[in-house]
Every structure is written in structure tokens, then in C-alpha cells.
Amino acid sequence: MFREPGSTIQTSITFLTKLPFRWDLSENRLSYLNPYLTFLTTHIVNFSCSYVLRMKMKSSILLGVSQMFFGVMLSLLNYTHHHSVLDILFVFIPQLLFLSLIFVYLCVQVSS
Following DSSP, what letter does each residue of 12-77 receive, concatenated? Predict the structure, then answer.
């Protein structure tokens, strides 16, 4: 089923808040018919979404870096078990350097 770019479908179905809503298919968003309520809910949703997205990004960075750090430390245990000094110097140290630089870069990107 194809539709024109400016077409909308209006329904009077009651949602969880028991208010009639309009489903705007061209923009894929839910907008209430009351303009004051629309402004209030848009402001609250935009603020909470930006906060949630920032926290989700920060937590995913911490989780990913901690997982990579755990893997690098396991590789260090493996290298020391096999008495491989070359692997420690030419594999472990560059991995640790790269991990720390990536972490600093991601922290700067998230904070700005």
C-alpha cells in the first residue's frame, strides 16, 4: 500500500491516557490533538530521551571497555604462562595503549 507524502490517517482510538490521538504516518510519530498537551509531552519526552540516550551511551562505553580490558588481561595471563616476552612487548602493550586511547577518545566524544 502506497501513500502520498502529505497524507495522514486520523483515528479516534483511545490510548493509555484515554485521550484521542492522531497517528501521523508521514512523520511516524504520535501527536495528541491538544496543542498544550502536545507541547508539554514533547518537552518532557525530548528531555528524558536525551538524558536516557546519554546515560545509555556512557554505560555502553564503560561496559565495552571493561570487557576489552578483561580480554587483554586474560591474554597477559596467557603470555606469562607461556613465558612469551615478545608477545607481551609487541602484542599486549600495543593493545593496552590502543584500548586506553579509544577510551579517552570515546569519553571526549560523549562529553561534548
Answer: EEE-TTS-EEEEETTTTEEEES-HHHHHHHHHHHHHHHHHHHHHHHHHHHHHHHHHHHHHHHHHHH
pLDDT at residue 56, as a whole number: 86
pLDDT at residue 101 is higher than 70: yes
Q: Give the pLDDT confidence of 64-77 residue by residue, as tens digits.
A: 999 999 999 999 99
List Cα–Cα distances, 39 to 5, 20, 60, 102, 103, in angstroms. 24, 16, 31, 40, 38
pTM passes above 0.85: no
Cβ atoms < 10 Å from Cβ of 13: 8
DSSP 103: H
With H, G, I as helix, E, B as strand and everything else as coil, classify residue 81: helix
Q: Burial code of 77-90, b = ≥16 C-beta within 10 A, e = fewer?
A: eebeeeeeeebeee
How far apart, in whole angstroms, are the C-alpha atoms of residue 92 and residue 97?
Answer: 9
